[in-house]
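Would you mind giving me a polypeptide sequence along with per-residue structure tokens?
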Amino acid sequence: MKILITGSSGFLAKNLIAHLQDRNIIDYELFNRSHSIDHLKNCIKKCSLIFHFAAANRPSQEIGFHQDNVQLSKIIADEVSSKSDQTKVIISSSIQAGLDNPYGNSKLQAEQQFESAFLNTHHQLVIYRLKNLFGKWSKPNYNSVIATFCDNVLRNVRLDIHDSDKVLDIIYIDDLVENLMQHLELPLNDPGNLEIVSYAETIGRLASIIQSFKDSKVVDSVGDGLMRALYATYLSHKQPDDFSYPLISHDDERGRFVELLQTKISGQFSFFTAKPGITRGGHYHHSKSEKFFVLNGEAEFKFKHIISKESFSINVSGVNPEVVETIPGWAHDITNTGKDELIVALWANEIFDKEKPDTFYKDLQ
């Protein structure tokens, strides 16, 4: 099955093409503004699956809506309808289709071009009436208000919000593309399942979330759902100069301590070093817990119960991966027992608070 993608230089098409390449699918034809209509017609003749994404969102003149959304759709619809072999055409329309504005009217007319041309034919039409779409490679001040927010926050430009309580229905690009990919496996006469994960959120809340990403050293819950999608979109708008940022290193005669990352609900990540023979720690926590992982060197972890005085030790080497946990009510310290610098990664279940450190010094001797 050969594939044609129109609007191939656009936001949606770029993401679909990337996912096709992930699957080593490279047998597809592309059409964009740089190509001729003859090229388009030749591609249609060769292809049985067409993703029609070419459209005008913000043309310089209103006539552009008709030219790019209606007239181009008519050319494609007429060309497909004249084919003898079955073809499935998937078009990206909009929830604005039919609204009384130039864009909405043009999207509805584009749909009607295909519906009329395919009437009483064996060709399959699949219409995606998309909500507000966002994700990587979306253009600020063009595709999405989310893209605009991301770009402005990164450039320290004030966000211009007219109605913070307005609710947007939004779709993440990867969720849409995952749905589109089903058509590679389905028969040409099967329209598939058009339900896509979507989110409803106020403009003010979206702006607040994106602004919170500015502090790279503190990360919110960005592992799933809308937060994951917004965070990925925000990061995709970074320029190469922003791909890294410095950390503060606290150095003394023992070694160094560096906080890597803080999270709003899952504690913080750090690492520290110790020179040969140096002992670090020597304290206990009432509630705080920690996980230590030796990356390099050899260490002895000593523990002593603050009430029963029971004590024991654990010897760990960076050669053999092992996590050592601290337990509330047990004092602990760590000694570099090797000849090389000791490097230890550390996770604590809470962010360090100087006002409530939950750290009480205790000699383990």
